[in-house]
User: Fold these one by one.
Assistant:
Number 1:
Amino acid sequence: MPRPNAPAFSYEVWRNGKIPADLSLSFPRPYPYRPFERTATMTSIAWSAAAKVHLVVLMLLVSYRHVLCTLVNTTLEETSPQIVYHGNSWVKSEAGPLYHGGFHDQTEDLSASAVFNFTGVAIYYYSSLWPFNVTTVLTLDGNDTETLNFTAVTSPQEPNGNPVTENSTIRWSRSNLKDGPHSLVMSPGNFVLVDAIM
């Protein structure tokens, strides 16, 4: 069935291969051709895709902010000015390879203490062990209190004052803290010991 408005070709026209001069060949386009509208649409799609990529990257950065922060640890020796000592009877140990950094500070003054204020999500306390009874009390943020015993249970018990017998390592820790300011107070059991804090 012929399309409406389609030009009529007779058998004679086809056979002779000649088109009469008065025959108008007009084929309407199926739709208007607008190249500007097509370019604008592709540009809009490209901008939309770029915006989605930027949004995904932003969400990843926000999600992993705490993870990236916790990868950075700082270890402080007993000499750090960030540790505030209270009391006048603090003494420094003799140099020894079993102390973190070669030394530690200590006191037997029951009124003495050392305070370390910090901002972070975790804290670690280092100490060596001795062949006699040694205890120190740690209090975090005023309510988390624990008495630590630094007696080397694998060593024969000896009189107070004998040399340290086990290497300084992490003896107490707290993690998954709220990211903000915190305070660690080191107070006496029968000693107050400060070696290293991370």
Number 2:
Amino acid sequence: MDALTHYREVFGRALPDSLVAVLSVADGNDDEGDFFLHNLLGVEEIIAIQTVQEQTAESFRRVGLDCDRWVRCPEPGVVSRKFWKPGWVPFTADDGDSGFAVDMSPGPFGTSGQVITYGPDPAVRTVIAPSLTEFFELISARLELGSVLVDPCTGAVSLCTPAGSSNLVESLMR
């Protein structure tokens, strides 16, 4: 069974077309953190992380913990103020289980396919870009501006904020 079929069998829906296009070029990355200190996920990694996120959220609910109360959402109605929501498809992850996801179940004022943040660090759900294409265009624009840091020891490249933070989420937030 191929990975795309496996995803459909596990979650009952296909991966978003925009993400399938990315995966056809790069089905993940070989070295951890090569995508601006994040991992660009392959299909099997997407399945694993999405499964863990959904199971974690369900475990919290089952024991009566409201994990959603820890989440900040500066755009109510655009992104759901949830720890995790079915319909969020992760495509990057850092070493702390946070990253970016394609939001296929946005709030009433959101857009299906928007790119959002997920995970505990930071526990903020916000739109980074209206689409996956615009997400990569945003990264390209930051690179063209020279908003990068290069670790002299490892050669790792990260995007940075004007204040010098190399956190990818912070560097892409509007």
Number 3:
Amino acid sequence: MANALRQGKISGQELQKMLSVEATTSDRVKGLLALGLPPDKLADAVGAKLSTLRNWSSGQAEPRADAAITLDDLRYVALLLLVDGEWPSDRVARWFTSRDFATGQRPLDQIAETPTDVIAAATDLIVAIRAAKTATPAASEGGSDTGSFEAVSG
């Protein structure tokens, strides 16, 4: 399932449907896995065993309330980045599983404890993406683009 989107087995529109508010728990789990989130890390993030995650994915069981809330928070952040941020799914999965330089934590690990922080970080990221898309680089205006660092002479 993790490579389903990349391999063209499901479309971006199907993924959005799997992550929609109306989606079943089974579809939400499948959607998060289709993004490329590792099943073991997703299970850890929601406080479940891998076998339990498989049961949710197959529709054989439903998560307890706290796990269902965490799944919904993950679904919400994923949709923010996919739709509003216009990010490809593999970048969304990388963002969830990459460590923050300041805290050393991953958004996937933080979401159960501090979902509002993860949602705020995703929202800030989307704002930065939009700002970057609307900014005109100096190089295209005939200036030189030296980057954000200045040379230091010794």
Number 4:
Amino acid sequence: MSEIPKNVSDSLAANQTFVDTTRAYKTIKDDLAKKYADSDFQYQEKKAVSNLWDELKAWLARVLNDLFDFDSQKSLENAVDTLINTVGLILLAIVIYIVVRAVIKHKGNWFFENKETDFQFDFATSVEATEENLEQLLVQFKKEENYRFASRVVYLLTIKKLAAAGSIVYDADKTNIDFRRQIKNTQIRSFFDHIVYVFENVWYGEKELKNTDFSEMEKSFNLLNKRLNG
């Protein structure tokens, strides 16, 4: 083989690019394996942690599936959700009923109710009071023109007379609406409605009761009493 002329080899050498391959490789550090063993580089899927709510739903699913043998997981899940929603609505309805009943019973006046209701005119504490004692108080309050207290006494006498006649069954937890439902005679119920209307507006509504208005209330009471005794 003939040798490449020197002038040609020098020309090739001048135009050729040489790469220093020693710079393409870096030294691998000894702690590389330790570094990538850190928890930040662990990509294993973590198991979901179940809570009490999930366990309850799983228990309901097992019970429903044992009872009805669902043909698919989706239909079973829908049944569990429907059952939970239904129970929730029932509980909500019960809570609303209790709140509404409490509001009706207290007439919504927990914060504004007159503290004088704590004294002997509260029927819950004066249930043992005789009609004679109440009638004496009625005379006293009318004489003093204290028609607010007088209206309370008329109301208490009304409840007592209705209970004595068997028109209502008294219970401290019952409201005037409950008593009204128990009264079968429409005429007596009408007198009762008027007495309660005046009493609640004066006692809980803090409205002033004039002599003429009280006279109308007392008239309804006398007619109610007459009808009960008739």
